[in-house]
Amino acid sequence: MKSITMRNNPLFMRNSFPGVGKWGIPSLKKQTIDLQDIRLIACSDIKRNDNDTNRQCGVHHFVDDYRFEGTYYRPEKHWEKYAQYRFVLTPDFSLYAEMDMWLQLANVAKNRWVGAYWQSKGLSVIPTISWSTSASFDFCFDGVEQNAIVAVGMIGCKKNRSGFMRGYVAMLEKLKPATIICFGDPFPEMEGNIIAVDYRASRKVVR
């Protein structure tokens, strides 16, 4: 009986949203979002019934994974808290070169699944794109439409600038993003319609 119940539970099966690519990674819908005067707030700083100033921010997840794992494992308990903000970036589940590839694949799928779930609840969602080595290019851009708004994080990228740029160029070729929200200072060689956001300012929360 438990098996039948689980197989009919979309939150267990994670099969509510159409998938794309070789791995069937959930697909996000391209959305039009007002990008004037962008301000971001860390997911670790949000709270229920936040004030009007903070609600005008978008929410980012460029923090340690443990701070936002609940967005995937307990999505029904978190989405309403996120819904009060201007928009949300999908959770930046880590992709490290030393990770086994199956875990990197799973983290990309979790990123997209949460985004699709939020969109199904009416939230404005911007996909966060990350990558590790060139082997991750086989799946790390899946589930994102071309010419969409995307976000990338620069924290830690200076330690492997050449590796970051290989992934960045591959992202431009694959996704052709309309706008790139860059969390941190972009490298001078980064092309595209970039909107840079100071990561230090994102932690100055009004309370």
Q: Which tags fit this structure?
A:
globular; alpha/beta; four-stranded parallel beta sheet; 207 residues; 7 helices; three-stranded parallel beta sheet; single chain
Give a brief outline of the structure.
The chain has 207 residues and is α/β, with parallel strands linked by helices. Helices cover 28% and strands 14% of the residues. α6 links the parallel β5 (87-89) and β6.
Give a description of the structure.
There is one protein chain. With 207 residues, the protein is α/β, with parallel strands linked by helices. The protein has one domain. The protein has helices spanning 2-7, 10-13, 52-55, 70-73, 79-83, 101-120, 161-175, and strands at 19-20, 25-26, 40-42, 58-60, 87-89, 125-126, 149-153, 179-183, 194-197. The strands form three sheets. A four-stranded parallel β-sheet has the order 3-4-5-6. Strands 7-8-9 form a three-stranded parallel β-sheet, with no helix packed on it. Helix 6 (101-120) links the parallel strand 5 (87-89) and strand 6. The radius of gyration is 17 Å and the shape is globular. The model has no long low-confidence stretch (mean pLDDT 93).
